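User: Modeling request: complex.
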Amino acid sequence: MSKLTITKTTTKHYNIQQIGLDMMCFDESYRRIRGNMRNKLFNCHSCGRNFEDGENLSLIITDKGNKMVCHKCGVEIKAELEGE
Ligand SMILES: [Zn+2]
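Assistant: Request completed. Predicted assembly structure:
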């Protein structure tokens, strides 16, 4: 007998309150400003991918502070937020 297991993962570690799609560009001035900060935000908070030069970044405002995500994740998060 096989055992049927259904796993549904909808874990969210933080609540997104707002998203600003393509608010910033990952360019030299971004890296210069953020580079001195403790929380550099040089990679996507959602998929973990490192940002590439010239990439559009989206700002998400969560209950645990502001985070940056890549364009692809930003679009998905925005759709999810507006769908609720
Ligand atoms: Zn991403």
